[in-house]
Write a structure and sequence with these properties.
This protein is mostly helical. It has one domain (3-188): Up-down Bundle (Four Helix Bundle (Hemerythrin (Met), subunit A)). The chain has six helices and no strands. It has helices spanning 3-29, 36-68, 76-100, 107-142, 145-166, 171-188. The longest helix is centred in the middle third of the chain and has 36 residues, at 107-142. The protein is elongated and about 55 Å long. The two termini are 34 Å apart. The model has no long low-confidence stretch (mean pLDDT 92). The structure holds fe (ii) ion (2 copies).
């Protein structure tokens, strides 16, 4: 399996939750029940799985391997990837604040939330697509087999350290379960 195949599989999980998030958003925009709790659950998923797991894996394992193969850390390609991760973090932070609000969202508040959430969804989809069409093919072309094996081991180490030391046992499993729950709650409901 190509080293980047692990990352592509994680993209599939993120994309499915983005689809569920879009359904959730349509309910809020349509004047449905103001479900702040579900917004927190979506943000928990995007923060923990999308950012602390997936993006950090890219930044701490894949990008350094590309630097070792001669790509400039400060060059356009890697800088652009890191800049997009930062931008997504900022959008998530603002959405998280909206989910923490106790009072119901006002009509302008719903409009603001909708604009922010739609920007986040579009930005995230474009980011994943750019990685799959530009960054990953570039990495696959430049890295030798030995390095690709090292990257896969690096991913496994990253997951182990995150689960055993930083976030606790069961972290990834609970995030995968959260993704499945959100998808079934918001996608199957309207199918
Ligand atoms: Fe990324
Ligand atoms: Fe990615």
């Amino acid at each position: 399996m190509e080293a980047t195949e692990h990352l592509r599989q994680e993209h599939r999980v993120i994309l499915s939750v983005l689809g569920a998030f879009e359904r959730y958003l349509a309910q809020v925009e349509g004047g449905g029940a103001q479900d702040h709790h579900s917004l927190s659950r979506f943000m928990m998923f995007f923060r923990e799985y999308g950012d602390l797991f997936h993006h950090e894996k890219e930044e701490s394992v894949l990008l350094p391997a590309m630097v070792d193969a001669g790509v400039n850390w400060e060059g356009d390609m890697l800088k652009h990837t890191r800049r997009e991760h930062r931008h997504e973090r900022n959008l998530m932070r603002d959405l998280w604040y909206a989910s923490c609000q106790r009072a119901p969202w006002s009509a302008p508040g719903v409009k603001e939330l909708s604009a922010l959430a739609r920007e986040f969804i579009d930005f995230q989809r474009h980011h994943l697509e750019k990685e799959e069409t530009l960054l990953f093919p570039a990495a696959e072309a430049m890295l030798d087999e030995k390095t690709k094996t090292k990257i896969v081991e690096g991913f496994q180490d990253f997951e182990r350290v995150r689960s055993e030391h930083d976030r606790g046992q069961g972290w990834l499993e609970s995030l995968r379960q959260l993704a499945a729950d959100l998808e079934s709650e918001f996608c199957q409901e309207q199918a």
